[in-house]
Amino acid sequence: MVQVDAHSDPVPVDQQRTGSRARLLTLIQQPDQLAVLLDDPTIVPGAVEELLRFLSVNQGEPRRVAAADTEVAGCPLHKGDGVIAALGAANFDPTVLDRETSAASELDIRRAARNHVAFG
Which among 20, 42, 60, 79 has the fewest CB atoms less than 10 Å away? Predict the structure, then answer.
């Protein structure tokens, strides 16, 4: 069984279940975050987005080959070099996150994490 939505490739149900369990476990392991959520259920939609950002289902790493000599973020790439895009890492880019009061590496269920790439 697979789930398909308009914005992503099909995600196998077992991967969804594993991700859901991991997100629930993360909340249990961070009782302060769970308490905030229980105290204010209106933040559930944003909390779901933040949990998706924090624990992405899609850690896919598309492999590419540099077509020409170039430079990415100060790192030289030569024609023919292999390149792997770590999609999950994009969810921890502090320049993209809406809320700057907590580090990108921390779960903050009050964060409006709408620009995540949890599904690719």
Answer: 42
**What is the phi-psi region of residue 53: left when phi exceeds 0, alpha when psi lies from -120 to 50, beta otherwise?**
alpha
Q: For residue 38, how far is the Cα from the chain centroid?
A: 23
Residue (of 35, 74, 33) closest to 51 by Cα position: 33
Rounded Cα–Cα distance for residues 79 and 70 (Å) = 8
pTM for this predicted structure: 0.66
Closest C-alpha to 43, from 107, 101, 111: 111
What lies within 8 Å, CB to CB, of 37 at 6+ separation is 27, 43, 44, 47, 109
> Can you tell me the distance from the alpha carbon of 1 to that of 72, in angstroms, rounded to the nearest whole number?
39
SS3 state at 86 = coil
pLDDT tens column, 61-107: 678 899 999 998 888 999 999 888 777 777 887 777 655 556 888 88
